[in-house]
Amino acid sequence: MKNDHRKLERYRMKNTVVAFALLFGVLWLLAGSITANNPNRAMADSVTTEYESENQILLRIDSTSTLNDYLSYAALKSHSLRQAFYHWKAALEKTGYAGALPDPMISYGYFIENVETRVGPQNQKLSLKQSIPWFGTLGARKDIANESANVAFRKYQAEKLKLFYSARAAYYDLYYLGREISLTKGNFELLKFWESVARTKYKVALKKHPDIIKAQVELGKLEDRLLTLQDKIGPTVARLKAVVNLADTFSIVVPAAIEIMEVEVELRTVLNDALQNSPNLNAMIHFIDKEKAGVRLAQKASLPNFTIGVDYIETGEALSPSMEDSGKDTWVVGVGLNLPIWFGKNKAKKNEARAKLRAAEYRYADSQNRLEALVEKIVFQYSDALRKTRLYRDGLIPKAEQALNASYTAYQAAETDFLNVLDAQRQLLAFQLQYERAIADLATRRAEIEMITGNELLNK
User: CATH second-level architecture of 44-100+148-303+343-459?
Assistant: First the structure.
């Protein structure tokens, strides 16, 4: 009977140990399923490889480089973009553990003074415990981490679009500066020719000396303007280098031409695209979802967490070797739970989470209103630049050229004053510069529309 009783006890103990082993195994599998891969991880790994590979493709920036070359270089080298990327990567890595179970705790105890029992002295103790949050707590934590990663990803997208816009805007300003210098030089040379014509007429007494003075004054003004424009090349180039993260050793050539697309845009179309695709707005949507998960997590604060554990106590031989179960080791299975009795604290957590959610919702609504106003402003500026481009190119510049030619012909025939020739030349130069400014503005506003919508305007 004694042997049968011992076998039964050992069988029960064995089943208990096996049951706890299976329970810990299920918990381990559960933790593993919670840390499943995020769908954006492959993209993050690909970008990481580009950033950190020692065999990184070297991009050449030289006199033949195009705007796309600068954009490609900026995407790979920009410090601000890398910063946004690694913020996203860090948030992405957090999704791998945010919903995991707390680490199990193992402890060991040695009895300095043995506890004597009927079956012998207890010498040492080994414990293993696992805390299990209330149902849904791990899921809420995982959702918070996932939405935080989505927010960081959208901010990374927004930073990339902003980077490309900044690079394009700097490139277009450099183009305009180059055209301004070129046109000013052309007018300077033309005015020098007219000054020589006036000097010739003065020599043959066909015109009076004041015409020469007027031409020389105008030449001095153009020369001063030309020097100022040439001095602006350095800061303008530095701006482009700073955006793209080019070293000072790189030489940037002022572009002679830029690509413009004279595409009509509809306010409603651009607005819908912006509201749907804006990375900043989408980031706020994910942030709202994160705060909703925060509310769910706060609601779990008033619910208990469980702790399961198993203790093993090693027992020495009894004083009487003939004692039944002498030296039998002890196994203890335990279950515990915490008591969330501090209702004021838990209520405050819930109120805090709800307030954060409402703040996020109002922030989204405010940002949506601001985006709508910004879209209307940019679409107006784009349409205005497109109208001016066509107006100056197809109407005002040809007419100003005709007026200048007519004034010069009349001047040679002594039918008009030299001041009229100078006025006609100033008018033509002003129209030419306004046309080039309109082209640069058109390209810049197009880049801005693409930044806030995330779509290429060419596809509209």
Answer: Up-down Bundle (1.20)
